[in-house]
Amino acid sequence: MKKQQGFTLIELMIVVAVIGVLSAIAIPQYQKYVAKAEAASALATMTGVKTNVEAYIVETGAFPDDSTDGQTAQDLGAPEDADLPLGAISFVKATGHLDFLFKTSGVNKLLQGKTLSLVRHATSGAWICNSKDIEKSLLPKNCSGKTAL
User: Fold this and answer.
1) What are the strands, taking DSSP E only, across the chain?
2) pLDDT tens per residue across span 21-60
3) From the centroid of its chain, how far is CA 69?
4) FRET pair for 36, CA 20 to 30 Å: which of 13, 14, 42, 77?
């Protein structure tokens, strides 16, 4: 008599179930990881522009308003919007914000259409990273989280 070798149907079903459970846990965690990496990339892009904004403030005594030559994000060192795969940088003069608006497509779903901000404190000159619509767990470690801007 020849002995049969191989896996039974039950053993194969158990393996499929284990893979299903692992993927149900791993995929959402991977999505969060990707969103955190994209948020950190946006912050790194804005941090590069921050130095030029400080120089502009020292020279003119005012925060750039993103409306005229010499005051746009691109004039102050930000990459062209077309060169930024994740979104666009803009200034909000009234509140001293340097904002990164994520695109509505081609970006992680957890960040689409949301804004990450660097806010300059008017008197101390300190910059604070925060967001009014991105959950705190997705922000880089030095960001303070959701606030009413």
Assistant:
1) 87-92, 97-102, 115-120, 127-131, 143-146
2) 999 999 999 999 999 999 999 999 888 888 888 888 888 8
3) 27
4) 77
CB-CB contact of 52 with 45 (8 Å): no
Domain ranges of the chain: 9-146
**How far is C-alpha 147 from the chain's CA centre?**
16
pTM of the model: 0.79
Tell which residue, 73, 100, 72, has the closest CA to residue 87: 100
Residue type, 28: P
How far apart CA 21 and CA 12 sit, in angstroms, is: 14
Beta bridge partners of 143: 129
Residues of the chain with pLDDT below 50 are 149
For the sheet containing 97-102, what is the strand order?
A: 87-92, 97-102, 115-120, 127-131, 143-146
